[in-house]
Amino acid sequence: MSTATIPRAPRTVRARGSRASLLAVGLLGAAVLLLLAVALSIAVGAKPVPLGDVWSAWRHPDGSYVSTVVASRVPRTQLGVLVGAALAVAGVVIQGLTRNPLGDPGLLGVNAGAAASVVVVAAVAGAGAGRSVWAAIPGALLAAVAVYLVGSGGRRATPVRLVLAGAAVSAVLVALVEAISLAKPEVFDSYRAWVVGSLAGRPPGTVGEIAPFVVAGLVGCVLLARPLNALALGDEAATSLGLRAGRTRLLSAAVATILCAAAVAACGPIAFVGLAVPHVVRSFTGSDHRWLLPYCALLGPVLLLGADVVGRVVARPGELMVGAVTAFVGAPFLVAAVRRGRVAL
Q1: What is the pLDDT of residue 257?
Q2: 282-312: per-residue pLDDT in tens?
Q3: What are the transmembrane regions (predicted)?
């Protein structure tokens, strides 16, 4: 009696399944890291609070000192999660959109547009109005639209044209910011408080104001994961696969701009997060945006909250702004990763 042999799956299929399983487990690990970063962000500050007390005060607020401290740190932590996810995911999309390994949220002129909008609003409506989130969002969106229009010029907006247009528009907007700031010192004071990049001292309700933009942008990026994979092959290959490259590039630029605008409007320009996190994640996930995007959404806040905690500890009882700490903490790590060949450029 003969026994039939069961055919084995091809080795490449088994390897892909094993890799997907490892990446799924790693995604759970990234979620655990994020929870730990959130706990540290609430517990660490000028007055450290034990993690056990943080949990008790969060579940049963009783008006005590510890409960008040925890309640005051929760909005800052929520803001860090939203902004970190927005910057990291926007960095992935911009790098894929422009096929530029140095792509970051400032490449499309978003940072310069937000800064110009803050300065103009402060000059026209008063310094207090310049501190509102809504003072920065319109400028960021208009700058990105201007970059796209200049970069297309009636033709197809190629990655090189977008980068060059972003540099040109940013230069004009930076000159505008400097001109207004030098003419009106009170405007410069308001702008200085925003441009350093910080999670601290933001107006109440900032989280609620930017949350819809961030959620909408993240959902849009998830829906664009497969088209971005096809776009990475080049316009001709993407078109042969049935993809409308121009429409995909426009939609990708739109969702990245929404994420950048919300993050920059809330906390000011925070460097490095949108540049470094995608590179580090790409070193172990590869270039598949279906894995890149969720990993960056989890690890972006880990980097930002970690930098914020470091800024509180090293300058206690004061603190360093998170925009400065991200460069000091993250830049050496990225340089070391590149030197060891662990970052895919």
Answers
A1: 86
A2: 888 888 999 999 999 999 999 999 999 988 8
A3: 77-94, 106-127, 133-150, 162-183, 210-229, 250-272, 292-313, 320-338
Residue 152 has pLDDT above 90, yes or no: no
Closest CA to 266 of 80, 85, 71, 117: 80
| Dihedral sign of CA atoms 259, 263, 264, 269 in order | negative
| pLDDT tens readout for residues 117-132 | 888 888 888 766 666 7
- Report the CATH number at residue 250: 1.10.3470.10
d(CA 23, CA 197) in angstroms, rounded, equals 32
Q: What is the pLDDT of residue 141?
A: 85
80 with 111: CB under 8 angstroms? no
In a domain, 57, yes or no: no
> What total of structural domains would you count in the chain?
1
217 in Cβ contact with 89 (< 8 Å): yes
Structure confidence at residue 200 as a pLDDT band (50, 70, 90)? confident
User: Residue 74: what residue type?
Assistant: V
Domain contains 314: yes
Q: Any residues with CB less than 8 A from the CB of 333 and at least 6 apart, and which?
A: 276, 280
Q: Let me know if residue 17 belongs to a domain.
A: no
227 CA to centre of own chain:
20
**Please, is 63 exposed, middle or buried when counting C-beta atoms within 10 Å of its C-beta (0-12, 13-18, 19+)?**
exposed
HEC readout, 264-328: HHHHCCCCCHHHHHHHHHHHHHCCCHHHHHHHHHHHHHHHHHHHHHHHHHHCCCCCCCHHHHHHH
Average pLDDT, the chain: 82
Tokens 């003419």 belong to: 183
